[in-house]
Amino acid sequence: EESLTSTTAHLRAGSFGLIASSRCNPFSPPYQRSDTAPTTPLMLVPITTTVWGMEYSVHECPRRHKPEAEAMFPGLDVSNLLVIPTCQRTKMDLVQTGETVDEEKDFCLERFLAFAEKVTDKLVAKGHWADYIDPCSGLSMVNKNSQQIYGEVDALVTLLNYQTTNSGCCKVVLHPQWGSAVYPATIFTKASSVELAAVITEAEIEIRATEVGA
């Protein structure tokens, strides 16, 4: 069975500013699985819309992928690990290239980082383990002692049965409503789904208090 992660080493940006200015590609490199999983892991929270129209859902980490989670987060007991995939609708098909597409990717990246940092910081402050993925590198942002790469596209295939299509050497995820005009990124936590929901609500209130239109 193919892995959701690979051991390919990528350079990690040293700050949010560096990450946000880089040109990120949320697509799957060619070594990742593209077939649709026959069943989906237990969904604890169905697809929900949060700030900026971002979608998220909450899932138990699939048993067959727990070894990969252990490799990504060394020393973590991955029992009861929750996976929270997020998707943002983009203004254009991200299969395209050019400055406008790069700017859109940066815009979505900044919004994800703002949301994910707030959520994970709150979870950690309450005593829960939490982390999130840098969409540019596929590496974890909080626990930086692993070079395991997380496959966002494969995660959406496994967790939500999303389809993919080929674009050159990459596999591109297809959102059921938005097609390839989608920017995926993921958060992880050991908190319960109830505790996570409370923290997301807190984050939403804070973001909407400072961001017009959020």
Short description:
The protein is α+β, with helices and mostly antiparallel strands and 214 residues long. Helix content is 31%, strand content 21%.
User: Helix content range of the residues, please?
Assistant: 25-40%
Q: What Rg, in angstroms, do the CA atoms define?
A: 16 Å
Quickly count the helices: 5
Element-level helix/strand string: EHEEHEHEEHEEEH
Strand content range: 15-25%
Question: Can you tell me about this structure?
Answer:
It contains five helices and nine strands; from the N terminus they run βαββαβαββαβββα. It starts with a strand and ends with a helix. It has a five-stranded antiparallel beta sheet with strand order 2-3-4-9-5, with helices on both faces. The chain has helices spanning 16-21, 66-72, 99-125, 152-160, 193-210; strands spanning 5-6, 43-49, 55-60, 82-89, 130-132, 149-150, 163-167, 170-174, 182-189. With 214 residues, it is an alpha+beta fold.
